[in-house]
Amino acid sequence: MIPLRDDIPSRTIPWVNYVVIALCALAFMAQETSSDHSEGIVAKFAMVPMRLSDPTAVPVINEERAVQTPHGVEIVRVQQTIGPSPLPPWMTLVTCMFLHGGWMHFLGNMWFLYIFGDNVEDRFGHFGFAALYLGTGVLAGLSHYVTQPHSPIPTLGASGAIAGVMGAYAFLYPHARVLTLLPLIIIFTTIVVPAPIFLGFWFLMQLYSGVGSLVGEPVSGVAWWAHAGGFVAGGLAAFAVSRLPIGSPPVKERRF
After folding, report:
1. Is residue 80 part of a domain?
2. Is 250 in contact with 3 (CB distance < 8 Å)?
3. Which of 70, 75, 107, 160 is at 20 to 30 A from 233, Cα to Cα?
4. pLDDT tens-digit series, residues 36-88
5. What's the CATH code of the domain at 25?
């Protein structure tokens, strides 16, 4: 399911949301135009769980690659060493959330942030939203770290922080609705889904996949627990903020 828009109008200009999107775009462009094809940037600024456990560790990834040989395509096992970072490992919990692994990863994250971030910034205020984004992003990274503390695989992406924004949205706007694009094989249709159902389904998928990653392969290509942890942290933050006199008051939804 792909959200197209929600029915909650913004009362303020979400400057922080726009700045975050711009910073992620600049970082991604730097990755795409880097002469080392982004491996250097990822190695320096992504979060590697192994480094949090042991800052002196040298992460090495074992992977299989298809190689063309005179006898045809063969699968060979290679080792990739992750270069050192100029930052203390704990700082990469922040820098990693501005990097992305490809165009679909980047565009998908930014679209979800654009859809849900403006209304959350309304309620949290500009400085509160910045704190929410960074705080839930760090907690999301720690959620992934707890489940895979010795993983040498770099973790990157804004998904954990955006999950925090979505968790806050789910709590703050329980009556909101989301116009959703629903791909059905070769047919595309749109449906209106209550925000708690849309976001709740998304959260359950992350939780289900996270549990699967624990009982299956020890190392997953997607940080499912970062998504789930960020979502819960965002919901708890919204619960706390709803008791404080900050940001704009809730607004009534508009109709599609």
Report:
1. no
2. no
3. 107
4. 655 688 888 999 999 999 988 888 877 666 666 676 676 667 777 887 888 99
5. 1.20.1540.10
Q: Are 136 and 161 in contact (CB under 8 A)?
A: yes
Report pLDDT digits (tens) over 212-226: 777 755 444 678 889
**Domain presence at residue 50:** yes
Domain, as residue range, for 177:
2-54+85-241
Tell whether 142 is covered by a domain. yes
Pairing of strands 177-184, 72-81: unpaired
Contacts of 167 (CB under 8 A, 6+ apart): 136, 199, 203, 230, 231, 232, 233, 234, 235, 236, 237, 238
pTM, full prediction: 0.86
Q: Closest Cα partner for 218 from 148, 158, 152? A: 148
Q: Two tokens at 65?
A: 């690659």
Structure tokens at 174: 């329980």
- Amino acid in the structure at residue 192: V
